[in-house]
Amino acid sequence: MNKNTLKFSLFIAWKTIFRYSAIPATLNIILSVLCGLTTPLLVLFTAMFIDSASEYVAGAVAGNRLLFSLALLFALQIFNAICNPLNNLAQTAVENKLRKQLRLLLLGKRARLEYKNIENHDTWDLVDRVASNLETDGFTQLNNNIAKSVRIIVQLAGTLIVLAAQVWWAALVIVVVTLPLIVFSLKRGRVLYEMYRKVSAMTRLMKYYSTILTNREAAAERILFGFTNTIDERFRQNHKKRTNLILKTITYETGYSKIGSTGLILCGLFMMIILLQPVADGRITVGMYISLTGVLMSVINSISWQIKYLMESFACNIEYFRDFSQFMNLGEQPGVLDVSGETLEFRSIEFRSVAFSYPGMQTKVFDNLNLIFERGKHYAVVGINGAGKSTMVKLMTGLYAVTGGEILLNGKNINKYSFRDLMSIYSIVYQDFAKYSVSLRDNICFGASGTGVAAAVTSAGLDELVAKLPEGIATQLGRLTDNGADISGGEWQKIAIARALFSRAPVKVLDEPTAALSPMAESEMFAMFAENTGYDTTIMISHRLGSTKLADCVLVFDKGGIAEQGSHTELMKKNGVYAEMFESQRSWYAEE
Amino acid sequence: MLKNSRQFLLWKVIIKTFRYAWLATPQTLMLFLTISLVHGFEQVLEIYGMQLVFDAVAGFASGKLMIGKVWLFIGIFGAIALLLQLTDAARWLVQGHLYRRTGCLLQSLIHKKIAIFELVKFEMSDTFDRIQKAVRGSQEAPSACRGVLEIATYYLPFFLFAAGYLFLIKPLLAIALLLIFIPVFVGEVVRANAAYALVGETANLQRRFAHYEDCVAAREYLRETRTRGAYGFFSSLFINCVDQYSATIWKTEKRLTAIEIALSSINIAGYICVLLLLVKYLLDGSITVGMFAAVFYSIAKVNSLSWQLITLLGTIVRDVSLGAYLYEFLQLKESDGLTEKFNTGCEIKLNNISFKYPGAENLVLTDINLTITPGEVVAIVGGNGAGKTTLTKIISGLYRPLVGKVTFGNKDAAKYKTNCLCDSISAVFQQFQRYQMELADNVRISDCDSEVDAVQALDKAGIQPDKKVFPEGINTMLSREFGGVDLSGGQWQRVAIARGLYREHDLIVLDEPTSAIDPLEETRLFRKFIEIVRGKTAILVTHRLGSAKIANRIIVMAHGRIVETGNHDELMALSGLYREMFTAQAKWYER
After folding, report:
1. pTM score, whole prediction
2. Chain A residues 555-584 with a CB less than 8 Å from chain B
């Protein structure tokens, strides 16, 4: 059952290759067949040449026949010399087509993935594997492997046919003797797979040890704590264990593949013996005997390595396409890639008895969350780490679906809105905002031809930076190109804010500005944000209490719900959680 | 001149690597050399065996030889062929083993070399570049060395044996072999050059389209790109870039194909010459049919081994130049200094210290004068970029001052090696590490030789290894990748605190140790710090001015200078920067 689905997906993959690059892939196969044909043709022509040469010496044939056979051999060499490079070229054409089409396919799929897949460790690993091994283990590699297999099959089958044309039973005997041997040598089984898995786990650990002994991030602790010797010892132990396991694995594997090539050699020897009688009888010529033996013996070695390599590579393909099918089956969020339409009018967002737990998790983030954000007000959301502040943002932007209750936008369930319509409401500055290596302008407007860019730049306090940059607002940022400008973390932050200000969305959200920011800088950022958003609704999320006094309403998150809400003054009067948190921070500043 | 020194370097790489291979595993190395030699010899033996068989078959066909004799020769030939398979497999196994064992030793050497680097070196991108190149070199040098040894013990002997064999048959044949060999060589050189140029041309395009993919789909970009609807923008940039990339590759490949076809015509010409020579010898009766066939067969073998050799040469040239980076790196000088036992639990004096990062224009610290008495708790406060962290690194000996002197008691720190200065200093860094190791190891890594249990330090940092978070107690692996659990930012920070406290110390630096911990916990931890550091010298860096009050003395920094010092009350009375900052922060907390 399991096996059937595997074959199925390899087949589908093969069809996909043809869908995207029909002509080059077909050429690739045809040229591979032609390349493979040179081997049996070489057998035929060499036999002809040897025979005519020795008969010529004996005076039995005229020189014409010798010259003709020589010409055939040369022609074959030329044919071979042209076929091979052309085949490589066809392969490049396939690679080019596949690169673009498949990467685009993957990119679209990744862009549409349901958000839970991105935060889930296992699915994200899967996505990462599929994307980063696309060319090394995926379609391109499969295409190369198929072309190579075709070639080898033509080489071997063609030679067998030549043999069968001489002495049919000899060919039959050889097939019967060697086929089981070869099949046996290709079936490498689970043992090897398990060994490889162990090796790769050890490799990761070994690489990790090496990383913390060489990287920059760990440098300070490495020097101060002086752990190099201890960890290096672990590295070497692990390396040694791994090396030994690899030796064992490869011995096992090479043993298997050598059983196959030994089989081929024995079959060659066997053929040499059983063909002796036909040679004596004159049923086959000496030239044919020599040519068959010589060519077969010379291709056996290279073919046996190639087969070994192919089998490994096909195994990777199978693994890859198992991942790939799983990846393609991951859920998508509908409408994510639609082009944005009109900005919706905003009146309110309401959480009604919302319950939520992350997929696959038992613990509830929210049990019964009720809150409302109304137009034109400034909100502050506070609470300890893990109280669900950021989760709330993910829920109201529809990245996750609630497990109970409902979220209403303007009184209507957010499920009823398309993703784009919902997104037109929000403009969010994330904690780990993105730093795109494109121009400063595109970092703010993503190629849109709006007039608001200049205003956003000014409001975010970026005018000074723009004046400093060599090409102003068109300057490339980041190190992607040689003329890219490297700017500071603070400047990036301003760009993130400009991005939010440029957006026409009526609800601006600041999701926990980076923890590295000093409290002072953080409150400055809040203040600047509040100043520039005018009549818009703002929601500021932080675990620091500094900015809460700017807000019309403070929401205190605790234990899966809203513990308290109200203005700063109201909450202080209440003398509850907020007051306690506030007091604890305030106490440091109390005059004694 | 320059070229000579470079060649010298290349040989040095091979010889040095050979020496390390010998150090790493002498048996494997010897075995490898022996097997290679045997293997090359067997290849020629096989050709000769084939000649015997073919002659015997020709004799048998013309009725001059008994079938038993033919069987015998086939048997001999078969034995050689099977032995060849066995040797082939053995060579494959041994070379890989040799490569890995040597690589391990070289990598370990790099680790140890890096250990003696001063911290400031890691501020230079140049250092990082060198390390990366050295690591690459440690992978490539063994393969270059192995390649050279293979040439010496396998390819060269094989070609000599083969040429000798052909020479014995007919001297001219040996020369004709060159005709086959040379075009293959030239072709590969041209190909390698073009491929090299291609990498240069396409590397940037490749980086770019990979980045545009990331902009859509990598974790740090995905959410924002999605919510802002920027997929179309980035995917069109991507398509544009990938098209350019493919076009460049296509252009080069087309050129290469043309070159290859042109060059193979020379190869074919060589082949024709050999074939014509053979025909001539066969016609004048100076070689037998068996010899003729064996030569014919050996040409195929020589041809395929030449290809292998050329490819090998190409990789050796590449690998060896990467290997050169490794030895350049390993030759870097260790900083001088004394290594005797060093005590930091004494008076620490900073005299006119100035410091700047290499390559930077501005001083990060200017004219710092500071005396810290044993057992004192000093808090350093100031805005972003005031030089607080840098100052702690000067005190702990991780950075060396550009100007000025640091003394511990009566000892001048400059005279000692960093690792002995650090001997009794501990720290919780702002950028602490999250080691993908077990919880206990994550703590004990700060003092590897200590036998003390980690539990106590964990307890001080407020971590109880309960089963809910740590299923296997202190032996829980803190990494999803290695089959364990992942912690939240706050929990990680506590682990880092436990790590800092675990290390035996007289002086401890706490650089913003609570930034990821929520306010209630933060307050509790700060109060606890006071107890923990009692009797030890401690330096506390904090953004939160209120928490600085636990210190005996507060140092206020701005623009790399110490602008005010004193205790809280004194500083408040000064009405300077401290008071301004304090009231600004306290303002948020007024009732």
Report:
1. 0.78
2. 572, 580-582, 584
